[in-house]
Backbone:
């Protein structure tokens, strides 16, 4: 066994695996948001739950907003899954998650937490993790296994 390579991998990771990590995160997030958005658009119970959540959060025009947010999740997630317009889709979903945190999650946090416990509770929200993944995808790009990569190769010839 090559100990030097093992130590290098443990400390620095592997650039050879980077594209597979990007693919895994991009497709997983894309599928999650595409399915979630589709359910909110096309399943009556999910559509009603989304509407009620927005009403409770006192979001203006809750019916229209429910369709808009659900559409952003469905379209953005679908685009992300195949890796087409990945950065704009990630940006739209990032904003969607920030608004979700501001309108529904932060108000549900206990008051008078110490700063450390506040950060702990905040980072426990799945939306916070999604935001971090979207920032990473915007910075890293969609990866080699994406429509964007293929198009960029053709456009830059």
Residues:
């Amino acid at each position: 066994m090559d100990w030097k390579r093992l130590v290098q991998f443990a400390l620095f990771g592997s650039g050879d695996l980077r594209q597979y990590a990007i693919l895994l995160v991009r497709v997983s997030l894309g599928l999650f948001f595409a399915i979630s958005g589709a359910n909110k658009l096309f399943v009556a119970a999910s559509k009603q739950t989304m509407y009620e959540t927005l009403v409770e959060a006192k979001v203006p025009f809750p019916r229209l907003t429910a369709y808009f947010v659900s559409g952003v999740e469905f379209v953005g997630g679908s685009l992300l899954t195949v890796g087409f317009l990945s950065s704009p889709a990630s940006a739209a979903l990032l904003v969607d998650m920030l608004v979700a945190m501001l309108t529904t999650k932060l108000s549900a946090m206990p008051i008078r937490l110490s700063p450390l416990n506040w950060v702990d509770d905040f980072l426990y929200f799945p939306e916070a993790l999604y935001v971090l993944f979207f920032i990473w995808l915007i910075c890293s790009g969609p990866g080699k296994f994406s429509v964007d990569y293929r198009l960029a190769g053709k456009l830059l010839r």
Residues 18-42 form the longest helix (25 residues).
